[in-house]
Amino acid sequence: MVVCICNAIRERDVRDAARQGSRTPCQAYRALGLKPKCGQCLPFARTIIDAERAVA
């Protein structure tokens, strides 16, 4: 599933970044070498990161 259309970031990319230590969407995007653009994706990315951190 696509999380961020502006940057073509997929859910698995956000999950991988969270597993590698990213705690916020901005940290995850930086880990991917990107920056949020319009911001519409940030709440969804945060939900994904929180879910990954809860499992870890």
Notes on the structure:
By secondary structure, this protein is mainly alpha-helical. It contains three helices and two strands. It has a two-stranded antiparallel sheet with strand order 1-2. Strand 1 and strand 2 form a beta hairpin.
Secondary-structure element order, N to C = EEHHH
Question: What is the number of helices?
Answer: 3
Taking pLDDT < 50 over at least 5 consecutive residues as the criterion, the unreliable ranges are: none
Side-by-side strand order of the widest sheet = 1-2
For the secondary structure, the number of strands is 2
Q: Which radius of gyration do the C-alpha atoms yield?
A: 10 Å
- Distance from first to last alpha carbon: 22 Å
Give the structural class: mainly alpha
Main beta sheet strand tally, sense and closure = 2 strands, antiparallel
What multimeric state do the chains show?
A: single chain
The chain-level mean pLDDT equals: 96
Amount of beta strand: 5-15%
Report helical residue fraction. Answer: 40-55%
Overall geometry: globular
Which key terms come to mind for this protein?
two-stranded antiparallel ribbon; 3 helices; 2 strands; 56 residues; mainly alpha
Summarize the structure.
The protein has 56 residues and is mostly helical.
What order do the helices and strands come in, and which of them pair?
Blueprint: E1 2-4, E2 9-10, H1 11-19, H2 25-31, H3 42-55
Antiparallel strand pairs: 1-2
